Q: What sequence folds into this?
């Protein structure tokens, strides 16, 4: 499908594709689908050549998969490989694309705004800069469940006043589900306060406190790399993490990708935007089904399908083609 055909086909559907972020990776990802589609390993070879190390080996063996600088390009490549398999299999072109955190880069590759090679190099650097911005063990992230967003923000503000450092809302994932990030001691204090206020708090097994002000030094360095990377406006609209909006120029796109490192991921607003725009079907294009499960909570989303196994791919292809009226 040519770029123009893709753009025209996308405008006629009620489907959106969402691409997962870090945490969705798993050892052996896409192995089953790669047996059927040679494009999977071809995609990994393309990205591996750009970054200078074997991404497929990392994905299949797990060696280094827990290191952010490797996790990010592996997950990006897996998501792009699934996108290519979807189109190769006759899947419909979606009306919108969106990605959670790292997944925004997968969406931009799918939309033709970034080449896979450039995106792989960017997220490899992004991982390195994020890891070096905060010494190991000093930062933390936690999911706060069962409290209103405003209450979580209030608790963060109270703890920020009391302690040195900062803790902030990092991801607004769904109603009653906010991820916080910042200095480890302050994150733990908010977790305790959340429990005292009737909520739940779950520490996340991450080495980097993403989407908070501790990432500003990383963002300043990353902005330089973005300026030197060829970027075009997406052929299919990509909803941005920082504002749940769509960039109207390349400068705004670069600015949003820089700010994404230290500002909150507005995923709740992103899903609301999709609903408001008439999207009824969501496909999660990457390992796992975290985003599909979040989408299933929404009243106007009729189908939310993951793609990451042969059975799921076949089910999603059939379900979306039927829903869009492409087959009876």
A:
């Amino acid at each position: 499908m040519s770029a123009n055909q893709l753009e025209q086909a996308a405008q006629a559907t009620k489907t959106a594709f969402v691409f997962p972020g870090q945490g969705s990776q798993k050892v052996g990802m896409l192995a089953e689908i790669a047996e059927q589609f040679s494009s999977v390993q071809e995609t990994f070879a393309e990205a591996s050549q750009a970054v200078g190390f074997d991404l497929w080996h990392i994905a299949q063996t797990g060696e280094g998969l827990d290191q952010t600088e490797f996790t990010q390009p592996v997950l990006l490549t897996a998501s792009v490989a699934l996108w290519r398999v979807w189109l190769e299999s006759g899947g419909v072109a979606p009306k919108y694309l969106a990605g959670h955190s790292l997944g925004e880069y997968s969406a931009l590759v799918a939309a033709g705004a970034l080449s896979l090679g450039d995106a792989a190099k960017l997220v490899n650097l992004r991982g390195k800069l994020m890891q070096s911005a905060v010494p190991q063990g000093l930062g933390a992230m936690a999911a706060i469940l069962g409290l209103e967003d405003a209450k979580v923000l209030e608790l963060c503000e109270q703890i920020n006043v009391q302690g040195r450092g900062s803790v902030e809302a990092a991801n607004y994932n769904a109603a009653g589900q906010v991820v916080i990030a910042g200095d480890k001691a302050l994150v733990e204090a908010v977790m305790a306060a959340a429990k005292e206020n009737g909520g739940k708090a779950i520490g996340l097994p991450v080495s980097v406190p993403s989407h908070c002000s501790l990432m500003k030094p990383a963002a300043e360095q990353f902005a330089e790399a973005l300026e030197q990377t060829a970027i075009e406006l997406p052929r299919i609209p990509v909803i941005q993490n920082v504002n749940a909006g769509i960039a109207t120029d390349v400068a705004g796109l670069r600015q949003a990708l820089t700010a994404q490192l230290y500002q909150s991921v507005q995923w709740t607003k992103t899903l609301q935007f999709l609903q408001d725009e008439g999207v009824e079907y969501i496909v999660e294009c990457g390992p796992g089904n975290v985003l599909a499960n979040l989408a299933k909570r929404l009243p106007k989303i009729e189908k939310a399908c993951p793609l990451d196994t042969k059975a799921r791919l076949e089910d999603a292809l059939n379900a979306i083609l039927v829903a869009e009226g492409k087959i009876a």
Remarks:
- The beta strands are 15-19, 96-99, 139-145, 167-174, 177-183, 200-203, 238-239, 265-266, 281-284, 303-306.
- The domain at 3-133+214-323 is CATH 3.40.366.10 (Malonyl-Coenzyme A Acyl Carrier Protein; domain 2).
- The first helix runs from residue 3 to 10.
